[in-house]
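yo

u said u wanted the structure for the complex thing, so here. seqs first:
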Amino acid sequence: MNETEIRERLLNLAADAPDGFSAPPQLLRRARRRIALTLASSVVIALAVVAGGIAGVRWLRDSDRQPTVRPADLPRDGEIIDVRGGDLIAVDLGRKRSRILVDGEEIQGRIGNAAWSPDGRWLAYDTEDGLWVMNRQGEPHQATDDAEMWAWSPTAAQIATMRTSTNGNVLTLLDPSTGRETELGAAVGDVTGPRWSPDGSRILYGVRGGSMYSVDVESGEQSLLVQLPGNLDSIDGIDWSPDGAHIAIVADVVGARQALYVMNADGSGVRLVEDNFEPGGWPAWIIPGQSLVTWSPDGTRLAYANFSGPDERELEIWTLSLDDAAPSLVVSHTNSECCIDGGGPVWSPDGTRIAFETDSETDRSHLVVNADGTGDPSEIDELTYLSWRGGWYFCYCYG
Amino acid sequence: MRADVMAVRMEGGVLAELYAQHASDALRLAYLLTGDASLAEDLVQDAFVRLAGRLLHLRQRGGFHAYLRQTIVNLARSYFRRKALERRFIERHTEPPPVEPPDLSDQESTRRALMELPLRQRTALVLRYFEDLSEAQTADLMRCRPAAVKSLVSRGMTSLRTKLGADR
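structre next:
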């Protein structure tokens, strides 16, 4: 059966669908009730806002306090970013409250990815019309009109982006304070990245075919860091260890699944850890902060997911120690339905547990397991999982 | 309040127009996702009612079909999620139903084979080959990676080939 035949079969089958050329009166009645309800709610909300505003003005007038920067505009510890109903929101895990950062009705398309700057002073997010940076007063500024690949520098002083030009991709730094752009030169070939080193001195990017380039941020000088062995296609993930001493790389193998490499930060000591795995998650180069593999907080171990078994219905979580030991299976989670997506292991802040996501046919759930493999997996709430992941949001829709 | 009443009447009229314009397409999509004519009607009516409340806020009236398609896909997913919970409960408490003899028309074979696919595979196939959406558009609507769409479609096709081949 080819595509044409499946199209024909679907068309034939669709002919069995019921016809619906006129709106049944019951539907219109329900719909009108819904519209009336929406209008009534809007009126009630508007009245509440007006009443609240009047009360607020009176309170301010009666109060001796001076106006200050609104604290609600400042990111607070423990707040994570999420998208609900098209709005970009910040969720305060401790207080179980959320607030809208970006109104989905006011943007072009929908939020792609979003991330606080590491110092919490800025919020960057991308939409269909480019990359936006919001300051602490909640004012968004369009930084670029194309921004599929971007990443905050560790100091939040810059955002690195791969911008498309007639010469191919150009690695560009953006200063969120001034909007000033600094070009670091054209990137070689069909790239993935950029990924900042933890000290902010270097940016790595990968090139289709398995090459990795390193760019010195100060001088803009770039050099080939390593040519990975194997018949490789694109590089999907680049992850620095927290101390900047090691780098983990996930790459597509031509005609096969994926390969995981670990090497020293200077490109030496390349070690092929896995050569036939499917890590789940999403290409890290496109998602600021996303990782296909994750380093433990102390930088001594890696965690990664692999789908295995018939129809890839078993989701395995593995850890790898840097002492040349073989990878260690932490847990194998079987789903009677299909685990197409999921994975995304994240370490608990103390490095003793690993949480992961399973996205089956009917449900998305989050589980946690001891990092040493003891005990059974147990459920963890999604917000805790998201906070362990780093408090940023990424869209499931690109990759 | 008079203006509100007018708005309700006006939007109700718009809804009737939109229903006349889009209901047939919506019913076909819902039917391919559910394989059940009456369930498809219910889903489509629910989708219109849900969108009715948002008509006042829709920025692009012309994008109604996209909103409707998204709502139907979401409602089908919710329905099957609930159904899966019910099924697990029922399976624990009842005997399996008897297997029916495989004497089926081509269309019925297709319907059954399609319904036996996991919902995500079925949704990906229907959106790609019935709604003619691109991989990126399908991924956007299903909130998954385009690579996942590719994989879902590929697996769905393989399963359909096996199932339909076995029926012949």
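Chain B has seven helices and no strands. Confidence is low (pLDDT under 50) at residues 1-8 of chain B.
cya
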